Amino acid sequence: MSKKKDADVILRSRTPLEFVLIVLVSVSAALFARYLADQGTVPEAYVVPIYATIAVLSGYLVIRVVNQIIRRIAEPTVGVTRARGVENVFKVAAGIVLVVFIATLFGVNLTAALVGAGFLGIVLGLAAQQVLGNLFAGFSLLVSKPFEIGDRVTLATSSYSISGSTYPHENQIGGFTGVVQDVGIFFTRVILDNGNRAVLPNSVVIGALLVNYSSPHLRVVRVRMDLAKNLDYDKFKARVLESLGKHDVIDAERSSVEIVDLSATTYQVVIAVWTDSDTDEPIRTLVIQEGMRARDILTHP
After folding, report:
1. pLDDT tens string 223-261
2. Cα 245–214–86 angle (5° rounding)?
3. Which fold has domain 145-212?
4. Which of 63, 117, 153, 274 could form a disulfide with 251 if both were Cys (CB 3.0 to 4.6 A apart)?
């Protein structure tokens, strides 16, 4: 345990040291380039490009190091999702500052450039409205916080076609179900239940019907079963509910067994159980097992 704590202390202290080291190396490199230019070793025309190269490299490294610092400070207080949001905002802001700084090095008048590029900006804005839509949708997701990284969710959207099962089953929300892996500036990444990795534009996510299974709440899982007509319904219902009541993940008092269909030789029941589990299949399997066990016991006492 002490070795782990020592490693954590070293890891936490290393990031600020990296930041200081990057700054010192960058300033030293810039001063050295200036010295070589003053001595005539490096042509004066090469100094500004050297400064720009140093700024790009050091800026990239500084952004990475500061993101690590933000992650370590923000995650314990505001959570993983909000911490990623702060990182994304910092990346955008730092990138803008870096571009402005490099433009200033080359003597570019940004005010005149922006005024002169006003019409071009409008054209590009219209062309990039989907990209900008994803950007603002990403910020909206971080502010509204409909889910956290690590939550299991279903995203139902008309933007993509979804193939339904041909096997007769209880009605379910048709959508993409999986665990949220990351909420980026433009895209949200989800690991689907089948193991595939889905990348959805933030504009689609913000406009989708979202069901969050990881938030603590009770919800219902429904299972249909066909029973022979000679099987006593009241006995079956009592035995199933009694068996389900032995499982902590099921609220047997709110669960029910109801007849929903009838044929010449069978009747169909729906076993509806309330649970706080974030996945359906283990609960569904449990209900089916208890239903089959009750049916077999009543059929062959």
Report:
1. 999 999 999 999 999 999 999 988 888 888 889 999 988
2. 160
3. SH3 type barrels. (2.30.30)
4. 274
* Torsion angles phi and psi, residue 39, rounded to 5: -80, -10
- Residue 270 · residue 223 · CB < 8 Å: yes
| DSSP-derived 3-state class of residue 282 | helix
**Tens of pLDDT, residues 63-107:** 888 888 877 877 777 677 777 777 777 887 888 888 888 878 777
If residue 252 lies in a helix (H) or strand (E), which one and from where to where? Answer: strand 250-262
Q: Of 198, 197, 190, 194, which Cα lies nearest the Cα of 214?
A: 190
Strand order in the sheet with 250-262: 219-228, 266-275, 250-262
In tens, the pLDDT along 145-178 reads: 888 888 888 888 877 766 555 445 555 667 888 9
Question: Cβ–Cβ contacts within 10 Å for residue 7, how many?
Answer: 10
Sequence ranges of the domains in the chain: 2-116, 145-212, 219-299
CATH assignment, 219-299: 3.30.70.100
Supply the pLDDT for residue 137: 83
Beta carbons within 10 angstroms of residue 33's beta carbon: 20
